[in-house]
Amino acid sequence: MKLVVQRTDFAQVSVEGEIKGKIGRGFLVLIGIGLGDTREAADRLARKLTGLRIFPDEQGRTNLSLREIGGGILAISQFTLYADCRKGYRPSFTQAAPPDQAEALYLYFVEKLRESGLPVETGVFGAHMDVTLRNNGPFTVILED
Length: 145
Description:
This protein has 145 residues and is an alpha/beta fold. The chain has one domain: D-tyrosyl-tRNA(Tyr) deacylase (D-tyrosyl-trna(Tyr) Deacylase, Chain: A, 3-Layer(bba) Sandwich). Helices cover 23% and strands 41% of the residues. The protein contains 3 helices and 8 strands, in the order βββαββαβαββ. The strands form 2 sheets. Strands 1, 2, 3, 6, 7 and 8 form a 6-stranded mixed β-sheet that branches. It has a two-stranded antiparallel ribbon with strand order 4-5. Strand 4 and strand 5 (62-65) form a beta hairpin. Helix 1 (39-51) crosses helix 3 (99-115). The longest helix has 17 residues, at 99-115.
């Protein structure tokens, strides 16, 4: 699994002009599911993400978590995180999990995030989505398992 985590002041996702998920301060998380990814990996990454301390404290140090700032998560599936561009100019996606497996693990991961008690919004798996965000910092990290 690969997660691209962006610290945001605002993020939303729309499908065909209809807003499907929206948060204020928090994380926009792009989620890629690869071949061989497991529920155990999803569990580890959910724990890491929900405890990640990348918001500034009173001294400006990245020391606060989502829970401490009252933030939320906007979780978006994105198989293109597994694009392989090493050969030629057209990406290969052979390392991305097949859609049925990826969707099942994505939904499991989202449920694990919700079990943390944090507000979690999502896009629509497999849909063409328009994602809008105001990246705070900018501050972006990549988590992998």
